[in-house]
């Protein structure tokens, strides 16, 4: 990029957003500063005697609290006390390894790494998009784009440029394909047909936060299933309408034709016979894994995934907890089956190597998790998390705001943060310890709070040049139009983002108003 290009890119409001965001430190350093600020604040709180109390029906006080006459009290405790400094240094390994999101993400990643590196995800995406009927190409792109979230980076690296090629091959402007695919993959990040890695990751943070109020609360990885499916059904017609009615006419008729270069690139993306055999084998493997889990829950007299000592939804808690290794086995079995047939797995050494490469790619997350784990733990040690949640809940009760307004406020706050901090896990790990317990105290379930956050974190992805894949998408655009700049891409995506925002707010508010279930045994409201 030339100096003149950079100067043009830095102009106006979007330039201001980019300059401001670029001054923010890495998410890891954000948590370092948050920890230092927390230590100072805890000392101030302990000196001023900050505390909060709530009725408690249990016999044993939650960690870092006192119980007397049916009332549990949290008192601010300085993180500089001898006890907390000892806990910080002596328990440092345990603090990291006890951090729930780290374990669940690594378990799932062992399987997902194999599925990705064997080429299964790429072949699945290419197979799905290339066979899309021309008349419904745009809605197919929208649905496949949201499904591609299971494929991690493949959605950006493979799917978006492939969409441009497919559009060009049928005589439509390739930038229309980029816009539709980018809107689905990034703007529709909260939507999907089935839960996946992101559900496991975010609910890990939710669980840590919810246990401030309810130490027995255990995450349900499919607790947002119906919500994320509804997003697919809501966002798909929006993508279709905006793409075909607004974006394509604005871009005008494409002057290019299906030349030999496009044909050659499409030929490279064609699914080979070996890959087709691999996909068939992967489908069989998926059915076997699903059948195995069904048998462990339904086989008469042998139900390891059902707690027969409980009644109602509590019986299914082992099943929900087992979904994390279930995702691991599903990705692993399908990846290996595909790789054997496609020729990308020739021995068990290949599988082990792919797992190792997957974990190496997680190194930045593991570094981040170290500091996030200590921030969350130290928040609990200080007592400031429960104190903020309890006092914040009292304020919210005094305002007597409708529940939809409370959740929309979380949605909007997360969308503003997303303009500057791209990592969904980084934002949620910092927000969850306050908003999840606070909303639990006013009767809103952790699942609903998580769903509202996810919606807000989704649509702004395509509105900010600070999104990690934004430069890559810009490069895709310049392959078809060398004059494209940051402002051009933002203007291209703004109609999607604004419509997603309005639809997301209305959907979240409506979901609460009609008290719809968020997923299996996951409700809007929470009662202690």
Automatic annotation (TrEMBL):
Short name of any one Pfam family annotated for the protein: ABG_transport
Protein origin, superkingdom: Bacteria
Membrane-spanning residues: 28-50, 96-115, 135-152, 225-247, 278-299, 319-340, 361-381, 401-421, 428-446, 458-477, 489-512
Coiled coil feature spans: none
Record keywords, A-Z: Membrane, Transmembrane, Transmembrane helix
Keyword Cell membrane belongs to the record: no
PANTHER family associated with the record: P-AMINOBENZOYL GLUTAMATE TRANSPORTER, P-AMINOBENZOYL-GLUTAMATE TRANSPORT PROTEIN
Record's protein name: AbgT family transporter
């Amino acid at each position: 990029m030339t100096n003149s290009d950079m100067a043009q890119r830095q102009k106006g409001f979007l330039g201001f957003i980019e300059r401001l965001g670029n001054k923010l430190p890495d998410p890891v350093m954000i948590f370092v500063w948050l920890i230092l600020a927390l230590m100072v604040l805890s000392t101030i709180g302990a000196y001023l005697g900050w505390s909060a109390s709530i009725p408690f029906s249990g016999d044993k006080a939650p960690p870092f609290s006192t119980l007397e006459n049916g009332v549990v009290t949290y008192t601010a405790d300085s993180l500089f006390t001898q006890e907390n400094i000892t806990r910080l240094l002596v328990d440092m390994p345990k603090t990291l390894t006890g951090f729930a999101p780290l374990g669940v993400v690594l378990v799932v990643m062992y399987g997902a790494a194999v599925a990705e590196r064997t080429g299964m995800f790429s072949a699945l995406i290419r197979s799905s998009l290339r066979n899309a009927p021309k008349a419904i190409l745009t809605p197919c792109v929208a649905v496949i784009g949201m499904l591609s979230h299971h494929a991690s980076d493949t959605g950006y690296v493979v799917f978006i440029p492939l969409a441009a090629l497919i559009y060009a091959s049928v005589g439509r402007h390739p930038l229309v394909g980029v816009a539709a695919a980018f809107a689905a993959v990034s703007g529709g990040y909260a939507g999907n047909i089935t839960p996946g890695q992101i559900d496991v990751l975010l609910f890990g943070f939710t669980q840590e936060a919810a246990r401030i109020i309810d130490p027995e609360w255990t995450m349900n990885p499919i607790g947002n299933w119906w919500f994320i499916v509804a997003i697919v059904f809501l966002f798909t017609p929006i993508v279709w309408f905006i793409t075909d009615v607004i974006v394509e006419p604005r871009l005008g008729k494409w002057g290019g034709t299906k030349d030999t270069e496009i044909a050659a690139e499409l030929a490279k993306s064609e699914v080979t016979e070996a890959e087709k055999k691999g996909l068939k084998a992967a489908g069989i493997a998926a059915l076997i894994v699903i059948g195995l889990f069904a048998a462990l829950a339904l086989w008469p007299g042998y139900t390891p995934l059902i707690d027969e000592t409980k009644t109602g939804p509590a019986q299914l808690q082992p099943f929900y907890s087992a979904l994390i290794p279930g995702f691991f086995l599903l990705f692993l079995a399908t990846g290996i089956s595909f790789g054997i047939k496609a020729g990308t797995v020739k021995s068990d050494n290949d599988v082990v190597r792919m797992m190792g490469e997957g974990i190496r790619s997680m190194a930045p997350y593991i570094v981040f998790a170290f500091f996030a784990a200590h921030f969350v733990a130290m928040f609990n040690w200080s007592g400031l998390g429960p104190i903020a949640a309890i006092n914040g809940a009292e304020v919210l009760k005094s305002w007597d705001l409708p529940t939809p307004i409370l959740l929309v406020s979380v949605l909007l706050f997360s969308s503003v943060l997303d303009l500057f901090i791209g990592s969904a896990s980084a934002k949620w790990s910092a927000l969850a310890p306050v908003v999840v317990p606070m909303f639990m105290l006013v009767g809103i379930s952790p699942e609903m709070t998580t769903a509202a956050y996810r919606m807000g974190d989704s649509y702004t992805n395509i509105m900010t040049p600070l999104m990690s894949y934004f430069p890559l998408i810009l490069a895709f655009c310049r392959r078809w139009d060398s004059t494209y700049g940051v402002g051009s891409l933002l203007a291209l995506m703004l109609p999607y983002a604004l419509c997603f925002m309005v639809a997301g707010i209305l959907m979240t508010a409506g979901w609460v108003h009609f008290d719809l279930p968020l997923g299996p045994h996951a409700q809007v409201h929470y009662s202690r």
